[in-house]
Each structure stands twice: as structure tokens, then as C-alpha cells.
Amino acid sequence: MKVLVIGNGGREHAMCWKLSLSPKLTKLYAAPGNAGIAEVAECVDIAAKDQERLLQFCKKKAIDLVVVGPEAPLVEGIVDRFEKEKIKIFGPSKYAAQLEGSKVFSKEIMRKLSIPTAEFEVFDSADKAMDYVAKKGVPIVVKVDGLAGGKGVTVAQSKPKAMEAIHRDMVKKVFGKAGEKIVIEECLEGEEASVIAVTDGEAVRLLASSQDHKRIHEGDTGPNTGGMGAYSPAPVVTDELEKELLQKVFMPIVRQLKEEGHPFKGFLYAGIMVTLDGFRVLEFNVRLGDPEAQAILPRLKNDLLDVILATVEGNLSRVKLEWADETCVCVVIASHGYPETVEMGKKIAGISTAKENPDVHIFHAGTKIEGGRLVTAGGRVLNVVACARSMFEALSKTYSAVDKIFFDKMVYRKDIGHKAVRVMK
Ligand code: AMP
Ligand code: GLY
Hints:
Elements: E1 2-7, H1 10-20, E2 27-32, E3 42-43, H2 51-61, E4 65-68, H3 71-75, H4 78-84, E5 89-90, H5 98-101, H6 103-112, E6 120-123, H7 126-136, E7 140-144, E8 153-156, H8 159-171, E9 182-186, E10 191-199, E11 204-206, E12 211-212, E13 215-217, E14 221-224, E15 229-232, H9 239-259, E16 266-275, E17 278-285, H10 292-296, H11 304-312, E18 327-335, H12 351-354, E19 360-364, E20 367-370, E21 373-376, E22 380-388, H13 391-402, E23 410-411, H14 418-424
Helix pairs in contact: 7-8
The structure holds adenosine monophosphate and glycine.
């Protein structure tokens, strides 16, 4: 089979690596890919948002299957467009992708299906939103409705911070149309986890659980990022919690979308908070998490291409997912300044030495080849991943690989997995 993967991050490198192991694969392309993906796929210089050129490319190369990594093309309707052209594509339709593309859509569907989530109200006027915050008090959470590159959520500890967020989103319109409506919700306390399912619109299979580390600094401090590291499984997601999530979250959502005539097909990610009163769903994403995928996919025993094909063809009920009984850790190495402005073009050294240990994977994110050398080309640069029988061993393998890698002013968190280690003590 000829497969095209759309995207250029660590998640897409992990997906391409896993797909490249499939005996069914004859040729793998990635658009636009990155320097690491180029080791397992042929990279094509077409942006993930350029649907027209992607479509032409698929027709020209007679691509058998397209796999979409990031959310933006899904929310923009790439699946509907390609399906109309009879091209097999893995991911949800534009309608179903609203679960991530619109916080209002996702909160309202949760309310309708009685899915546990933070109490909320929706606003389309800044004045009313500010009156609500004045009445409710803090802490409180302000979220723009649409996609905002991970920057649209403000967890406000003071009223001025909440008012400032409302002003930024609705008056200054920093996120444009994405901020025409906002959701204001109760601030929850607890431990976060990522639980991702794959569904063909009817059958649902849970992937192994994981936990992301969203803040830039150790001890979960500093601004939110796309994710600074992950591990799988997450001990906070017990077998009982997985069952509960399947019955109270994933099955009802999948059933509801099918009834509405828009069955969900693809990865459905629930970001949850485990509170003292049980779980709450914080958000849905309509794709694999990044960096969660980098810690989950190395543990998957199945052929990923088989799983994706079964999903696209509506045969997921025949698939049983199997997982290596190991812990997998991913540490993200980022450029100095991330998540704000970063310097790029720094030479990267040590990757081949780090990869000498066969249990270590290096998944690239912002990298490229310049003048024959590997250099940095983004905020998040590399994902260093290792699996082992215990968390301690996985951490030690991952960090000793990180120690072998160098570029000027690189940053990474030294406390990935700290919550899981605490649970095991
Ligand atoms: P979201 O995009 O909705 O997942 O929000 C991004 C991050 O903001 C989450 O991963 C949480 O760390 C935090 N967050 C979102 N909603 C809440 C909430 N209701 N209470 C506390 N923290 C939240
Ligand atoms: N790591 C969080 C996300 O992919 O949204």
C-alpha cells in the first residue's frame, strides 16, 4: 500500500516509524515531514493546510491511504474533501472534528449526554462574560471557542487576570474568529491524563493511557506548551477508570455522532482531570496527542496500518489492541525561548550515539538538514523515547540518551514521570 502521512511533528515521526514496520506498506510519503521522518518516508514539500496540492499529489501517485496527524486540516474538512474524491483517508469529518474545533460544541454535547465536565456558561459578549466572572469569583477558566494553537485557555487565579483574558479574546480579538464565543468554566483540581480511543464510528478501542507534561518548567510551572514530555501507561488511569470512560464518555459520544448522521472515525482523545469527586473531561481532541503518541506507539504490538485500515473500512470490531507490558517515557528537547520566540538553525549533535541503545527512539519535531547538517527548525526539536520493564529503568534509559544529545541552549524538563514515580513509591 502507498500511504501518505500529513504533518511534521514528533507525533507524525512516531506514526511514520510505526507504519514503516508494516509488511503491507510498499511506499510511505509524508507532507511536509521533517529531517527524522525523511529517514523512514519520502518527504514532499506540501504544507498540511494545502488541501488542493495534497489532493493533486494523491491522485498523481495513486495513494491508497491518507493519515492525518494534526487537528487543523481535520477541522478545516480535509476528510470530507478527500472522501468526495474517493480517496481513503483516516480521520473525522469536519462535523465530527468540531469536538476539538469548537469548545462550545464539545461542552454542549457533554452537557446533553451528561458526561462529567466542569460547570460552564457560553458567552458571545465581553460585558456579560465579565459580569459572570464578577459574580462567580476565582479561580476560573476562560476558553476561546475555536482553535488557538494551544494558547486559547486561561486558568485565571485573580479577577483581573480573567478580565484581561476576556478582553484579549473578545475585544482585542487576538485569536480572530476563534474568540467570537468563549466558554467560562469552573476551575478543577486534580491530576490530568490523556485517554485516547480509536473508533470506526461504532466499535471503540482504547489505546494505552498516558500523561502529558504541559508546562515548560519543572514542577509543572511556567507557561503552557504543546507538551514537554509524556509517559505511558499513566497509573492514575486505573482499569476501573478506563471502563468508566468507555461507558460514560466514548460510547455515548460515538453513538450520538452516529445518530446525528456524522459517525466519528479516527482517534478521539479525551483530556481528563481526575478529581477527588471522580473524573471530569477537560477537552476532546480529534487526533493523537503530541507527545503522547511518541510514548504510546512504541508499546503497540499491532500493525498500525492494520488498525487504521480496519477503522477506515468499518471493521474495527475485529481488532483487538495489544500492548507491550512496559513503561515508555518521552522527553521533549526544545529550543531556548519556547513556547515564545526561539532561535533556530543550531547544529544538533549526538543523535547517533543516543540511538546506540536499541531501546531508544529519537523522534524529530522541528529539525531540518541545512548545508548537509542537522539543525534546529522549531520550538520543540526532538523527542527522546525509551521503553523498559519499569518506570525507573525507562527514565534512566531516556535521560542517559538525552545526555548524549547537544545543541546550543537546548532545554528539557528533568522531572518527566514524576507523578508516576510518586504513585509507585
Ligand atoms: P484544554 O485545551 O481545554 O485541555 O485546556 C488546556 C489546559 O488548561 C488543560 O490541559 C488544563 O491543564 C487546563 N485546564 C483546562 N480546563 C481546566 C479546568 N476547568 N480547570 C483547571 N484547569 C483546566
Ligand atoms: N499533548 C497535548 C495535545 O496533543 O493536545
